[in-house]
Amino acid sequence: MTEKKTGLIQYDDGYLNKTPIFQFILLSCLFPLWGAAASLNDILITQFKSVFTLSDFASALVQSAFYGGYFLISIPASMVIKKTSYKFAILCGLLFYIIGCGLFFPASNMATYTMFLFAVFSIAIGLGFLETASNTYSTMIGPRKFSTLRLNISQTFYPIGAAAGILLGKYLIFQNGASLTAQMIGLNEAELHVFKLQMLQHTLHPYKIMIFILLAVFLLFLITKYPKCKAVEKTSTEDNVGIIPTLKYLVKNSKFKKGIAAQFLYVGMQVAVWSFTIRLALVLDHSINERMAADFMVISYACFFVGKFIANFLIAKFSANKILLVYSIIGCILILYVSFVPSFTAVYAAVAISILMGPCWATIYAETLNSVEKKYTETAGAVLVMSIIGAACIPAIQGLVSDMTGSMQFSFIVNFFCFAYVGYYFYKRMSCES
Description:
Elements: E1 2-3, E2 9-10, H1 21-28, H2 31-51, H3 56-59, H4 61-83, H5 86-102, H6 104-110, H7 113-140, H8 147-156, H9 158-172, H10 180-184, H11 189-202, H12 204-223, H13 243-252, H14 254-284, H15 290-317, H16 320-340, H17 345-357, H18 360-369, H19 377-386, H20 390-405, H21 413-433
Antiparallel strand pairs: 1-2
Helix pairs in contact: 2-4, 2-7, 2-9, 2-14, 4-5, 4-7, 4-19, 4-20, 5-7, 5-12, 6-7, 7-8, 7-19, 8-15, 8-18, 9-15, 14-15, 14-17, 14-18, 14-20, 14-21, 15-17, 16-17, 16-21
Transmembrane segments: 21-40, 60-81, 88-105, 111-130, 151-174, 207-224, 264-284, 296-316, 323-340, 346-367, 379-401, 407-427
GO molecular function: fucose:proton symporter activity
Membrane topology: Multi-pass membrane protein
């Protein structure tokens, strides 16, 4: 146990006697930064589908590139954390994020889908560092008994960034007038080429703004002192575990594996629903354009934000597992409505699903991380972040179902099975409580 002049006491397991408020708020401000990047992907999917004439499956590869970057960088990021600190990993993440945003400039000039995917992938490298460090750090920066609540509070900031990203995309990427598909009808080959280049140039604008914001946050973190919040290393070789022994331990930990599966499917479902909500609105009402359809994503993130506040209040008073089981059941019903009711009200049901998704990630993450010994925390946190690869898979599967069936609306059924498993996961955890 170590004590500092600030009055903070760090225990041997890495937790603190109290939460440093300013540092926690600044840490929580990182969450909207990756929320903005993730929601801009929903805009890019719609924009690229029309500009590059893509299938629903091919357009979903934006998410595959984005979350594939998370998957690949999480273990290296955990090794950086283990050798240095959470703060250093966060600074690395912000730097890579800035570089990734900068790559949109050559991508817009090259005007190839592959180059845009590379830029998105590069941003994800930075976000992999940020999430691997920030999610675990948020659970650690204070008393252990409030670890899940702290992460839920930090995650409450996420939809603020997500809504900001959608608004940036709506006003800076999408344009007024008819939909892109309608505008391209009747253009000859030369006119079509010029029009598409103009549309791709619009994708630069939100990333210019993001670069300035990221530079400001980078400087703030650079000058702010943070507690290490890392478990005291033991001198015995038994406690100084490497990456391979840690992975072997995690493979044998059944609670951890179930948490990974639930997180994989939850994240995949969340991203799939958000990825195709704009497309669903355009399909069900041909009279609206992309900018108008983007409003439904703004409302979705507002619902996500409100849902998190409600969940934080309920989780502070009742069992998180019982609450999330009820959320999952309602979510399954809403997804069935989206998939089978041939009415524009299906879009409103898709929006309402966001109310129910708020507390899932943080609760699964914190509870799963608590199921491992503290000497494995950094690597376990990285593997949990790697489960984000579900967001690279589930949207692609939904896009494939849409292409095969010719129905964007029916393709939402993919998310029913994901939410059903998440509900089953919380039901089993609830059973363990009693």
